[in-house]
Amino acid sequence: MMKLPESFYTRTDVVKIAKELLGKVLVTEFEGIHTAGMIVETEAYAGATDKASHAYGSRRTNRTEVMYAHGGAAYVYLCYGIHHLFNVVTNVQDTPHAILIRGLEPLEGIEAMQARRGKEKLQPSLTAGPGALSVAMGISTQHTGVLLSGPELYIEDRGIKISSKDIVAGTRVGVAYAMDDALRPYRFSVKGNKYVSKGKGL
DNA sequence: CAAACGATTTTCT
DNA sequence: GAAAATCGTTTGG
What we know:
By secondary structure, this protein is α+β, with helices and mostly antiparallel strands. The chain has a single domain, classed as 3-methyladenine DNA Glycosylase, Chain A, CATH 3.10.300.10. The chain contains 4 helices and 9 strands. It has helices spanning about 5-10, 15-20, 110-115, 130-135; strands at about 1-5, 25-30, 35-45, 75-80, 85-90, 95-110, 155, 165-170, 185-190. Strands 1, 2, 3, 4, 5, 6, 7, 8 and 9 form a 9-stranded antiparallel sheet that branches. Helix 3 (about 110-115) crosses helix 4. The termini are far apart. The model has no long low-confidence stretch (mean pLDDT about 90). The protein binds a DNA duplex through strand 4, strand 5, strand 6 and helix 4.
């Protein structure tokens, strides 16, 4: 039950951090509503050298500015005009690394999540997928730039250990336009977990 | 100032 | 399994 320290995010190996985020718990406290879910799927985006990243080639725009901040901030991007994608900014200042949270296993405030998603029953699709989990957790683009050190939005370690043999590495999803970089094994998920998004390939 | 595109989800066939 | 929805950001003129 400990919030991850800033030093967790400011390390330089974004792939390693992506793996370590599996099993951690994302918590939000918006409008007095407490919701929490265990992270079961992540994707690393290695900034300037990664064609799939918004910051490829050190591109720096108003939107990507947050990625250049030091690790520990949230980067929320609106995709296809309707989906909010939640990312964790990592590494040090001026290095635009980020990790996309693709899947969560609901732990607390499940009723609230269902209400936000307009779903009657609990089903994997509630939080399987980056756009879906953002809605369930109440995250939207207005939270971009918010520090993950709380009090409304943070990630904590509850002592859950994911054995390395239960971590599946795969190619990323929805980044086919990135050509060869789309084949990099930057996607990590917890083996057999129902809340891991299916994606298109793998 | 106008046009094109996308780190996806949902719904229909 | 495949196609449509939808709008802010980015890129070109």
